[in-house]
Design a protein that fits this description.
Blueprint (H helix, E strand, L loop, with lengths): L27 H4 L11 H5 L9 H55 L2 H12 L36 H13 L1
């Protein structure tokens, strides 16, 4: 047994209330909306589909706002991307300088070692310790070279530079 009250049904179906506003002359909607009257559509209206405007005012306004937003954000976005690129370049430069500093520190540590100093003196300055024998091998050149050939000898078939040819021809003309 429920305690809910039964619903009341409406008699006479649904009714529309008449508006209490004054009706203007020439307005279609108000003149034809009498209670109980059915409206029918005309045949001409049902055959031609009604189209709205291609671009509504809201669509144009929304497009303009999106365009304005894009133009407003373009400058700061470009600066942000340029800043990020510069940050990446500076980070790479920092890594390179850190590596270079580590190499230089290792070189300083190596040069403070007396054994390294002695090795470099032997290699670069040809120093020898007492009791060591120094042997210097000269550059002999090609195996076909003869050591007895004078350095003043000129090969007659060698090409002569242009200025020597000019001076030779002037000397020959003077007699």
């Amino acid at each position: 047994m429920s305690t809910a009250r039964p619903r009341r049904g409406r008699s006479g179906g649904t009714r529309r209330r008449a508006s209490s506003r004054p009706v203007r002359a020439g307005s279609r909607g108000s003149a034809d909306s009498r209670p109980g009257r059915r409206t029918t559509r005309s045949a001409a209206r049902s055959t031609t589909p009604r189209r709205g405007p291609r671009f509504t005012g809201r669509a144009v306004m929304l497009g303009a706002l999106v365009l304005l937003l894009a133009l407003t954000l373009a400058g700061p976005l470009r600066q942000y991307v340029a800043g990020r690129q510069e940050l990446a370049e500076l980070a790479a430069e920092h890594d390179e300088l850190t590596r270079r500093a580590a190499d230089l520190q290792a070189q300083l540590d190596r040069q403070s070692d007396p054994a390294y100093i002695a090795q470099q003196a032997r290699e670069r300055l040809t120093y020898v310790l007492p009791g060591d024998r120094l042997v210097i091998v000269g550059d002999a050149g090609d195996p076909g070279d003869s050591a007895s050939a004078p350095s003043d000898a000129v090969d007659p078939e060698a090409p002569v530079p242009w200025y020597e040819g000019l001076l030779g021809s002037v000397a020959a003309a003077d007699g």
